[in-house]
Please model this.
Amino acid sequence: MNNSYKILPHINSPKDLKNLSNEDLNVLSDELAMYIHEVITEIGGHYSSPLGVIELTIALHYVYDTPIDKLIWDVGHQAYAHKILTGRREEFLKIRKFKEISGFLKMDESPYDCYGAGHTSTSISAALGFAHMRDKNNTNEKVLSIIGDGAMTGGLAYEALNNLGFHRTQLTIVLNDNSLSISESVGALSKYLTKITTNPTYNKLRDNVWDMTGKIPVLSKPIRKILKKTEEGMKVSLTEGGFFEELGIRYIGPIDGHDIPELIRIFKTVKEINSPILLHVYTNKSKRIKHFESNDAVKYYSISPGNKPNKQNSFTFSKVFGNSILSLAKDIDFKCITAAMEVGTGLSQFSKLYSDRYIDVAIAEQHALTYSSGIAASGNIPIVAIYSTFIQRAYDQIIHDIALQNLPVILCMDRAGLVGPDGPTHHGIFDIAFLRIIPNIIVTSPKDGFELHDLLFTALEINKIFTIRYGKIETDYKENYTPKLLDIGSWEHLIEGDDIVVLSVGSMVNNAIKVAELLKDKKDINLGVINCRFIKPLDYTMLSDIKEKYKYIFTIEEGCIQGGFGSSVLEYFSKFEYDNIINLIGVDDEFIEHGSRKELLELTGLSVSRIYDKIIEVHEK
Ligand SMILES: Cc1ncc(C[n+]2csc(CCOP(=O)(O)OP(=O)(O)O)c2C)c(N)n1
Model:
């Protein structure tokens, strides 16, 4: 931190905010923005979302008595200012690095992180849990959920609102409305919120009510009642239904989320109200993006280390997915569905060129899956693109709505395996285990971009429930590739070995090939390598050959060992008498921290050198 910072270096906890003047608080907000900018452009991380809530964060910590009062941030990707103000200013310099502080909130990182997350839409439910236990224990801390308009589109948020409105306890929902999710916020709620924030008449009336109540500290009960009635009447008529009020949650807003004195004034008032409140704060994620050629909050949602642009000529699996979809769309009529991850899943171009065949359902993975089952049931082909980790919350939809009815949905899971700096909330390590046990489902993973294209093509041809998982990594691919149909359940014997074979899945096929080269070079051992692109069904013909030919069998997957691909191989072997020695390599019954993918592969035993060591250890025993 250079000498230009005047106030930030002296803030070691929220207590240090309490005596600052409004002017100093404003200077602090500029310094926080500069600090976040300097660090994140150098080491990478979320960018526009944290910059959008700087003033809001200052006002919250100024008014509330944290960590006694509970601030529960939804997702947590926006809470960088919270981390910096709560004693982690120096640690922030290495945020998201291996063994350093997390990019999300974590309960074991700080007492100020009273609840962790990474997936959206959990904060109101969790806050209600806190609030109810406070009531039972007769303590009087305040509980707040800070949730974005994007996260508010997730079904869990509505379940919590429903429960909160019924129980009517003190819980303040701060709705941070910037009209953006990662891309544009979509759906009826988004339109509804925009209508409120852009309605000048309503804003004026709203402010008047606040001015009056703010200026008269002790209002008589009847006046309060009348005011409340008028206010409700205005809201209901002007916002077409007073959605939150109808649920029993008092709506206050919209207020400017960048005006620190105003935020402080309103939080001080809200703090005194002991019923459920939704405080609608509008913020602008672009406001503090000043150092690039544009202030595009979608483009600068996150930044890679050194702010390097993506390499133009290289392919990631997401890019291959986007390209393959575009080329397949010319001849085959399918629909693409995403849950707010248009850019991340590689569907940006498709969404523009085929807007009538593209549906963003907002951050609603459960809905995305059941909605797709409806598309399939009506005789159309849905391709759903979702990150592996976010599929977890749509498990019953896969079993009950898709598999049980055998409805041919194609499910493409990006970010499978270890995703790196986003850490345990985002690693996609459970998908093989939880999908392969469901009847009627085909589970696959390509070794490279060409095979991803082949699998997509195959999925579109065969009219079955078809899932494809691939990681956040670069891969081989060439544009204008003509895909081929793959036999369901067919593996590829890439290298013939002597007595050891590696059954490798997806991203691990490349590592297995490198291990084979090393073993040949260093020990003159011929390692067999098989590309197990079908995780379910297995290639039973090849497995019976393997059983006879190889004494040592290793399975390698970038996923959990328990219930994973290796387990399915063991299930196969359990049907016979066998004397093969079988070893499973993968993530062994633990959550994996954040760090670079390279560091995490090393940690979990999935790096080339660790696989090599393991094979030698077993073979030379
Ligand atoms: C269940 C789930 N689906 C998708 C995501 C990916 N994701 C992270 S932040 C985000 C957008 C959140 O938008 P909003 O709540 O408005 O917050 P903002 O970033 O705009 O402040 C999305 C889709 C996620 N974290 N969790």
Q: What stands out?
A: Confidence is low (pLDDT under 50) at residues 207-220. The longest helix spans residues 22-43. Residues 436 and 536 are 6 Å apart (CA to CA).
